[in-house]
Sequence to fold (476 residues):
Amino acid sequence: MNHLVFISHSSIDNAIALQIYEQLDALGIKCWLDRVNLDGNAMEGTNYVRAIVQAIEHAAIFVSVLTDAAERSENVKNETDIAHQRRANGMLLCPFRLTSEDLAEEFRYYFARTNIVDGTVPPLEERIRSFCHEVRKAAEMIIKSEQTPIADQARLKLLDVDATTDEKKLASYLIETWKTPRMVGTLSQCARDLDLHYRSVIDPYKHYQYFNTYQITKADNCRLKVLTDTLYNMGHFSIALGDIFENVSYALINSGKIAYVQEARRFLSKALATYEHMMNTSPDNAPRLVESIILCQWLLSITHKIERNYGTSEQILLGLLRYAEEQREDMGLSYSKSVLLPRRELAIINEDYRAFDELISDIDLIEDPKERFYTYRRAFEFFCSENEEQKAAELKEPMIASYHRCSDDLYGVYYYAMQYNIYQFYSRFGHTEEAAQLYEKLLPELEENHFERYATKLKIAHGRILAGRKAKDYVK
Fold:
């Protein structure tokens, strides 16, 4: 979903809503309209309620066609209520009034402190044209605004360029003419290129831009995004296809931005569907596929954690832990690739002292150097937050050493995460000079690479030091 505008209306006002949709589209503003995005190409089994809720949550602007029929519509009321709740994240409400009667109490509440554009003065076509220009100005204002979840989301969507008719035809042609080994080999190379790019740029926004513009080969002039979408929609699944979706979701999640989470979940759902399908068609690859499923479910739990939806995250992790334990026993999976992920994440969410002690006592079970570093880092961070200076101090050097053993295989975000944790250690336990030096070095790099989550927390923590107080935050 790469639309900026959701158009809410009564079905009686379909014609007016379609005019708004077409004029905004002509102005370069992508919209979501049920009769276009659902009725025109709905697949059997579509969950309409879920689709509408997701469409509102993915939008930056909520356009409401306010008529007498709309005020009587329970669907319009429900849609407006969801949009009203998202105002805290920066969503703009743009009502277009086409009734001369006083607004119903509900809508007076929803649109309080909102500019309601009057469309009752003829001619209607001119009022619609004027209203659409106002919506475009609102979209431009959001995109250029300060960092808010909606603004971040809008800027990200501008990178998600729709496939042209020629691109779709080319992708279909390549799928039809290339043999399976060639296609899988090409996708595998693309997955490696994506991985190398993210390691080099660090910035998740730039990486998403790279994914949307990446050409699979210079000769074929076909974008990877178009090819992967076409393969997925046609049911041509492969492990390499799942790896590409997984890579993009991983980068978006590592940003720590709430605005990127929904896009990450979209890619995760495709990765999971791909891996689960392959379990039935490629049993020889079952261990590898199970590891990927466990990783994607773990990432899914993190998306909910970023939204502070800890209950849903914990529920996913508890189910994942049972699944990982079963698969580890049945397939002989390693500790690092199975039960460690849900165990560690549950300890983080529940801030469980005993669980962190157990993770460290089991550190020799962790065969993967990267996972050993992740575990040291999270335990170090936790014990800092618990004022356990001795425990944290004991973990500091092993954490740094474990980082250097695998730094070439890590994404850049983990360097900044570790540095932020070291800053926490310095600030919490009175090493103010070291904390100040690290702050001056770290903050510009965090802001340059779009890690606003860590940058904001670093500023707050440093502000507490300057005020003579201890840093107290803990990043779940």
User: Anything to note?
Assistant: Residues 40-45 have pLDDT under 50 and may be disordered. The chain is about 70% helix and 5% strand. The longest helix spans residues 258-281. The beta strands are 5-8, 31-32, 61-66, 92-97, 117-118.
